[in-house]
Amino acid sequence: MGKYKHIGEQSIRFEQPPYIIGSGCVAGKKEGEGPLGKYFDLIEEDPMCGGKCWEEAEANLQKKAVEIALKKGEIKAEDIEYLIAGDLLDQLVASTFGIMQFQIPLFGVYGACSTMGESLALASILVEGGFAKHAIAVTSSHTASAERQFRFPVSYGNQKPLSATWTVTGSGAIVVGNQKHSSGPYVRVTGVSTGKVVDYGLKDSMNMGACMAPAAAQVIGVHLRDFAAKPEDYDKIITGDLGVIGQKILFDLLKQQQFDIEKQHMDCGIEIYERTEQDVHSGGSGCGCAAITLAGYILEQFQKKQWKKVLFVPTGALLSKVSFNEGRTVPGICHAILLERED
Amino acid sequence: MGKYKHIGEQSIRFEQPPYIIGSGCVAGKKEGEGPLGKYFDLIEEDPMCGGKCWEEAEANLQKKAVEIALKKGEIKAEDIEYLIAGDLLDQLVASTFGIMQFQIPLFGVYGACSTMGESLALASILVEGGFAKHAIAVTSSHTASAERQFRFPVSYGNQKPLSATWTVTGSGAIVVGNQKHSSGPYVRVTGVSTGKVVDYGLKDSMNMGACMAPAAAQVIGVHLRDFAAKPEDYDKIITGDLGVIGQKILFDLLKQQQFDIEKQHMDCGIEIYERTEQDVHSGGSGCGCAAITLAGYILEQFQKKQWKKVLFVPTGALLSKVSFNEGRTVPGICHAILLERED
Fold first, then answer.
1. Scanning every residue of chain A, which has its alpha carbon at the shortest distance from the alpha carbon of B333?
2. Residue A333 and residue B109: Cβ atoms within 8 Å?
3. Are B135 and B22 in contact (CB under 8 A)?
4. Residue A1 reports pLDDT greater than 90
5. How close is the nearest chain B Cα to the Cα of A252, in Å?
């Protein structure tokens, strides 16, 4: 076998870290009007994205994100060995119909809103292990398809508690390759800490930040121990969509592990909207939230040399409407991806 | 990066093929009464498997399959770096609740009934690439949870056309490792051909064999070309759940590619039931169908030295009840796993 690259309890340190050579992100109108709007490659003003139903709309977001990532990465679909895709919809239909036309061998993945972490981890593993020269990771969410599926159709105008989040409409795609792209600085995926299912017994699908925070605390804690690192070694530790309530719980739980990440922490769900003005309660959520923040804002900070080392930790809540209605808990899962700049 | 192990269009040839060191399979009562009944580790007579609802029943199947695989593989959960799990249920709730207790880092995957192919491929990739010493792949299906979700609750007694299949109740788990187990003969995963989404425009969820056959023909054809192999080089080429209608279409489509696999072909869905006596129409289906046939019957044939080289090709139909009701097509995806015996 290859040299053993697994370290500590749950982590991989890549020997020859893959490069992020292309990225694409498409955001909805509301996201385009938010504080990160200027970082997105494309703002889709039409909520249906040219489709006939919400599921088709979300599929079209994925299609466009992949097209942009391929273009910016200056690579053709036929030169990519694997596509790793997932979304929040039952049986991943946004991915199936969104990426079908590219005819790239597919690994479909599901990790709820942590999916960008899982797909980017697997894309990097495929490249670093010598199984591919290029792989592309893509995920999406759409506020209308997700709300209808998990809770109520948006058109019902159902009220939500302040602990609830707003599902981001958007899709992000990242091309990972085994060689440098034409121009630096380069962002490399240098490590991965893969999460476990963590269940603190919470059952409130209107407070997913609280459901996911224990899983985020578990994987961030284990990552820091596995890499013998301290929070201050990172420019940012970025969770996916904990929102303001989940963030508080994360800080508390990490303090129990003797880690204080308050200075380094950023949450994509908190950053992506003007919470009060845009009326999103606890923040943004969905696979698309972490994906477009990564493909848009985060990579841009690396390019501008603002950041050198970032831990990207998309956060996922594991429920279906059936499991929720059956009174099951909402466990969480999160994956931590270590991103480092090479000048 | 590691040495490039990708060959041809869609395949990997492992340099140091991982070993299958443990397997476990749990089957329902009906599957236990079928022709392969004696090969399953455990027949679960209770359709609820000790749970309170169908989803919990299916989760319990996964739990038991993993427990058996760990026991037979003589390995503890804490010595397994990754668990790759998936099922047919919305948001993979059978996997979430089935495998949570093992606390193994999780990659959740979805490939419809091809999921055992995807999870075994990724488990093998993780081991061969040096990212893990051991990984476990598990999938499941349950006739009651699947029928209610995709079509109608079983208790409705809805009639089905003869082209329909019967979803297998069962779960199979495979432990892959980088070293030989205590006793031979050994089965190694020597290659993988990863499938693409193939859409011939069919829309009939009661004829999934026809929906999946084009994807099976695509990946088997490309596998044979990528490995410069002929059908007669294999003892068996085993699809997941095409049933008798899908099998015919597969033969026809492969003949267009100049491959005749009629002598080598076996379909888990055809073998798992006495089709007429057990009233299953076109055959068995579901993630569990290929998984328990692999973990039970197929590995046993290797152990008995009946077979030396097998292409295992689980077949998946990509639909959700929403995509179906919206009039979308039912595309297929299949992954081919090359299994070879080492004495």
1. A106
2. no
3. no
4. no
5. 22
